[in-house]
Design goal:
Blueprint lengths: L1 H17 L1 H14 L8 H13 L4 H17 L8 H14 L19 E6 L6 H14 L4 E5 L5 H14 L3 E2 L7 H14 L4 E5 L7 H18 L6 E7 L4 H13 L4 E5 L9 H9 L3 E5 L7 E3 L2 H9 L1
Parallel strand pairs: 1-4, 1-5, 2-3, 2-4, 5-6, 6-7
Antiparallel strand pairs: 7-8
Helix pairs in contact: 2-3, 3-4, 4-5, 4-11, 5-12, 6-7, 8-9, 9-10, 10-11
Length: 317
């Protein structure tokens, strides 16, 4: 129990520290919004709406939260502004719980010998896609899994080199081809090698281009079709990586990628260096796609499983 408590406490400290800029920004804005007020009235609600929108929660999600706060304040006649943080925490957590998306991912995925669990990772350049893959590989290996990586982002030499370096750090094999090779061919080779060597998990990196949705859709479809020839049903997960520090731009990227391919999970990175962590709430609410992982720092262990309740508690607690 003592060891478990230590790791739980350590994880919470990383989460609190990673969200500290967002928390500080949100709390300072809320303090200004309720200055001189003793009751939650229309003016406080208007100010709170502005706080949430400017914290990158998103307009639609903000309106849902304001409506819930308004209903709660009307129901609890004597609620005052000092209770607003707890009220926000409760209502946002409840809103996210009602989205019918499972809570977070796991680093201990059940696997079957000869039939690896395949994750195809998508996202634009610069969001931390390859770094996230490396950190995932590290965590899966720590959980006792045999992991293979596929460098199918063949349009950027730096992407292949970066994945190879992460493979070295995580001590997992990386399957690659030459610059400009067919990404689907790399995916085929990776899965073939993974099956032959009884790998548990395969993670495929893909090109981060979004300027041509039709081209992106065709490329990702081709990769998926080729993978199915080696592992029926692959990929098991199409994970979209988003940069949390870009705020509303992350919403737009999520919209474009969900139109281009079937995204089944999200990883939101770079939350430690930004005051825009509220974007996680909006994206989780609007897209109804599970946020599995959040990036909270540069360290190889700074990728955490996303837990809605812990996240909201850390932000508003």
């Amino acid at each position: 129990m003592g060891i478990f408590s230590f790791f739980t406490r350590e994880k919470k400290e990383v989460l609190d520290q990673g969200l500290s800029k967002t928390k500080q920004s949100v709390f300072s804005k809320i303090a200004r919004a309720i200055a001189g007020k003793s009751q939650i009235d229309d003016e406080v609600l208007d100010n709170l709406e502005e706080v949430l929108v400017t914290s990158d929660v998103g307009v639609e999600t903000t309106l849902k939260i304001i409506e819930r706060v308004q209903q709660r304040a009307a129901r609890d006649k004597f609620m005052n502004t000092s209770e607003l943080n707890k009220l926000l925490k409760d209502e946002i957590a409840q809103l996210l719980m009602e989205n019918n998306t499972e809570d977070g991912g796991t680093f201990d995925i059940p696997t079957t010998p000869g039939n690896p669990y395949v994750i195809m990772v998508v996202g634009v350049n610069g969001v931390g896609k390859t770094t996230t893959i490396g950190k995932l590989a590290h965590q899966y290996k720590k959980a006792g899994k045999k992991v293979y990586l596929g460098a199918a982002d063949t349009f950027r030499a730096a992407a292949v080199e970066q994945l190879v370096e992460w493979g070295r750090r995580a001590d997992v094999p990386v399957i690659k081809q030459g610059m400009g090779s067919d990404p689907a061919s790399v995916a085929f080779d990776t899965l073939s090698s993974a099956v032959a060597n009884n790998a548990d998990i395969v993670i495929i990196d893909t090109a981060g281009r979004l300027h041509n949705k039709v081209g992106l859709m065709n490329e990702l479809t081709k990769i998926k079709n080729v993978m199915k020839k080696v592992v029926p049903g692959a990929p098991n997960d199409v994970m979209l990586v988003l940069d949390g520090s870009t705020g509303q731009n992350a919403f737009e990227q999520a919209k474009q990628f969900t139109k281009a391919t079937e995204v089944t999970s999200l990883a939101i990175t770079k939350l430690d260096g930004t005051a825009k962590g509220g974007v996680v709430i909006g994206i989780s609410d609007q897209f109804k796609i599970p946020v599995k992982y959040i990036g909270l720092g540069e360290g190889i262990d700074h990728l955490q499983i996303f837990n809605r309740e812990e996240f909201v508690d850390s932000l508003f607690g």
